[in-house]
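$ ./design --mode recover --in tokens.txt
reading tokens...
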């Protein structure tokens, strides 16, 4: 049986999937009383695995432009969820850390991520999800190979810990 999506451009389907996950996550966040966006919750989650990361690496690893990351970090800092410190060896570098409130928020967000993924993956067998993840990683790797940036950090979204919770389960 065909679904009518077999001939749609892959980029369109991937983009639509990402936007749908973000919309669903935002709805669940709002329903649960959180005043964070998908992007902010993703950044909080990512920072929980990378305490003290240089601010310029945040934009590369999350694939966002410098101005957008600065706005999101400013907002999280005003909310008391992160703090930035000047690097002791290179004063041009700002290091980003979750505050205790940010760490608490991260723990509370785990249930939201789980709910989002439960909605997103409903009625999809685990073996199909595994194949999907494997295929998407191959596509990302292929595209990253063609888009090598000299200023990109070694660690990227292909980091095996990104997108996993503390127990190593995939979240987004």
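writing sequence...
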């Amino acid at each position: 049986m065909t679904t009518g999506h077999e001939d749609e451009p892959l980029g369109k389907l991937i983009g639509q999937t990402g936007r749908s996950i973000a919309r669903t996550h935002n709805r669940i966040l709002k329903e649960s009383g959180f005043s964070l966006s998908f992007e902010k919750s993703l950044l909080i989650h990512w920072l929980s695995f990378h305490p003290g990361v240089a601010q310029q690496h945040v934009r590369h690893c999350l694939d966002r432009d410098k101005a957008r990351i600065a706005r999101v970090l400013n907002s999280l800092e005003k909310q008391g969820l992160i703090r930035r410190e000047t690097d002791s060896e290179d004063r041009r570098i700002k290091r980003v850390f979750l505050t205790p409130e940010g760490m608490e928020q991260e723990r509370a967000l785990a249930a939201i991520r789980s709910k989002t993924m439960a909605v997103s993956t409903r009625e999809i067998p685990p073996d199909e999800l595994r194949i999907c993840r494997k295929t998407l990683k191959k596509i990302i790797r292929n595209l990253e190979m063609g888009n090598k940036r000299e200023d990109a950090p070694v660690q990227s979204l292909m980091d095996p810990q990104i997108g996993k919770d503390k127990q190593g389960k995939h979240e987004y």
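exit 0
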